[in-house]
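Thread amino acids onto this structure.
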């Protein structure tokens, strides 16, 4: 019988919880850590061990994954007073799946190397449903050896694993991806608000747009969520605002100005000011609906 690697997962938010479920389904011995313990209780019942700190979760693990909100949360989890890196054995693998700035990814890679650890950067595309269904896409920056070691773990949670190059490559493509998504979400929110003020048959107009040249997967998803107005979280609105900030900074380092990112970030920022930060990113349309009242 194959002996499964011991895995630790730091962060049980919208994405991390689904990832943990699939690791358990694949029979990986799993220890989890989340700042709010209540989010870990269902996983504990399913067989995960719940740790009290990132260091405790990482102790004895061959692979330690993190799925966290931003650079600050990642820094605390890996390098804080009870951080995971110091508890990991040389030769084990740190896997960062969060959407982060390339600068912090490079710093973390250096810290992992100083401790004799492998580093795999593997941000994901997909949302809550893909995480729960084991259908994520991993955008991997790593050397071949490290990726080979961690691939069985990633495979249990994924539809596709794309090896893009060395550490840092994943962060770049993930920010490009989210920049494009954010611009499409905000432009579609404006289009929907326009439709709703015209007297057009809304559903007919939306079906036309979804099937026509502007149609895309994200347009179809946003059409459904924005018209239902429930805003169950698939992708947190406040995290998209953060991703746009990271994207603009990363592009600027390559002398590229993301002129479309600034107005999109402003709209997401206004949504946060209106108390929508903890809703799905599709809730950004409510900014326009309120402006029209």
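Threaded sequence (293 positions):
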């Amino acid at each position: 019988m194959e002996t499964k690697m011991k895995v630790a997962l730091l962060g049980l938010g919208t994405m991390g919880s689904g990832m943990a479920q699939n690791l358990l389904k694949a029979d990986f011995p799993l220890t989890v850590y989340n700042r709010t313990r209540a989010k870990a209780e269902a996983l504990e019942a399913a067989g995960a061990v719940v740790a009290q700190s990132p260091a405790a979760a990482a102790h004895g693990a061959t692979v330690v994954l993190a799925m966290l909100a931003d650079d600050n949360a990642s820094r605390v989890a890996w390098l804080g007073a009870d951080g995971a890196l110091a508890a990991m054995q040389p030769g084990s693998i740190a896997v960062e799946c969060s959407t982060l700035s390339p600068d912090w990814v490079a710093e973390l890679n250096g810290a992992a190397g100083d401790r004799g650890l492998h580093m795999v950067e593997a941000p994901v595309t997909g949302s809550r449903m893909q995480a729960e269904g084991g259908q994520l896409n991993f955008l991997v920056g790593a050397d071949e050896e490290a990726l080979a070691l961690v691939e069985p773990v990633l495979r249990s949670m994924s539809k596709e694993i794309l090896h893009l190059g060395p550490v840092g490559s994943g962060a770049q493509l993930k920010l490009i991806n989210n920049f494009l998504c954010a611009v499409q979400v905000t432009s579609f929110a404006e289009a929907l608000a326009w439709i709703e003020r015209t007297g057009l048959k809304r559903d007919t107009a939306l079906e036309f747009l979804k099937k026509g040249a502007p149609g895309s997967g994200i347009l179809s998803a946003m059409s459904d969520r924005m018209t239902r107005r429930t805003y169950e979280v698939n992708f947190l609105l406040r995290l998209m605002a953060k991703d746009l900030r990271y994207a603009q900074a990363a592009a600027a380092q390559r002398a590229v100005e993301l002129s479309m990112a600034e107005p999109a970030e402003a709209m997401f920022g206004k949504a946060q000011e209106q108390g929508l930060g903890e809703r799905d990113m599709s809730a950004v349309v409510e900014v326009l609906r309120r402006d029209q009242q």
